[in-house]
Amino acid sequence: MAAIYSLFIINKSGGLIFYKDYGSAGRMDTNDSLRLASLWHSMHAISQQLSPTTGCAGIELLQAHTFDLHCFQSLTGTKFFVVCEPGTLHMEALLKVIYELYTDYVLKNPFYEMEMPIRCELFDLNLSQEQKPNP
Amino acid sequence: MIGVGKMKQYTNVLDKPLSRGRQEVSLSAFAFLFSELVQYNQTQVDNIAELERRLEDAGYAVGARVLELLCHREKGNRRETRLLGILSFVHSTVWKVLFGKVADSLEKGTEHEDEYMISEKELLVNRFISVPKDMGAFNCGAFVAGIVKGVLDGAGFPAVVTAHFVPVDGQQRPRTTILIKFAEEVLRRESRLG
What we know:
The complex is a heterodimer. Chain A is of the alpha+beta class. Chain A has helices at residues 30-50, 91-105, 121-131; strands at 4-10, 16-21, 61-63, 68-73, 79-84. Chain A is built from three helices and five strands. In chain A, helix 2 (91-105) packs antiparallel against helix 3 (121-131). The longest helix of chain A has 21 residues, at 30-50. The N and C termini of chain A lie close together (7 Å). By secondary structure, chain B is α+β, with helices and mostly antiparallel strands. Chain B is built from five helices and four strands, in the order H-H-H-E-E-H-E-E-H. A four-stranded antiparallel β-sheet of chain B has the order 1-2-4-3. In chain B, helix 1 crosses helix 2 (48-73) and helix 2 (48-73) crosses helix 4 (142-154). Chain B is globular. Chain A binds chain B through residues 104-105, 107-111, 119-123, 125, and chain B through 28, 31-32, 34-39, 42, 128-132, 135, 140, 172-173. Chain A: Part of the multisubunit transport protein particle (TRAPP) complex.
């Protein structure tokens, strides 16, 4: 079964607000993950400018030899992206589900400050329940 | 004939019959509103006890009004005079109207005569809220405790009502218990009534 390596959520200014790795393949230390997040944020923005067609919303899928990267950007500029094994299916649907969990358990939490790292117990709980069916 | 098929126009708004109101409200809308209520109160206070008190006061105002409304709508303007009566009113009718379901359980305290507990697996107001560790035992259910207090005070059963998290084995999320401690006079009156 294809597996997910890691999940990132970045705020509208490109700062990493949530990072979770699944297994050793996706693991990286804090500094690397922060660097990767801002790198992706810039690449996403540049791709919007580089596109030969108008109305481009940014990179949605990046395919490489050893991994796939699916990215979902909400209307507010928050980006959810997941690094997974090449050929993993239903990642867009998964990103939408994670977005829904974010709106429920992070945005409705009065103790969460906007654009700050996510430290919400309920979000983590529901996220791991979401992941259980994926081995 | 004149007036047939036309809605009766009320000149005075106080003469209009009380409507049933909309039965369902968006949960998300309420969650955001409640989140703002908590955040606003957080900016006004210095410590957690104050924040709990403020949420309780907010709930108290709701409770007083809910009592009047439900006595009129559900019970045909009858008044509860017995302890168990008012408790089951809170446990079933008030919960059903406010949260869409009756409370999970109503228990009498074993240690003290004047303590009763209404338990809920997860309060509706707490559904999306994760309290950070540094806030200790703070529970936004203080709002619901305030509602219960408002209902009981309005009905003539003064009590101290608080909300607590009770850890449950085998479950990650703790249960919530609303602890009701009645005043002396209520118990004396109750024993007099037999």
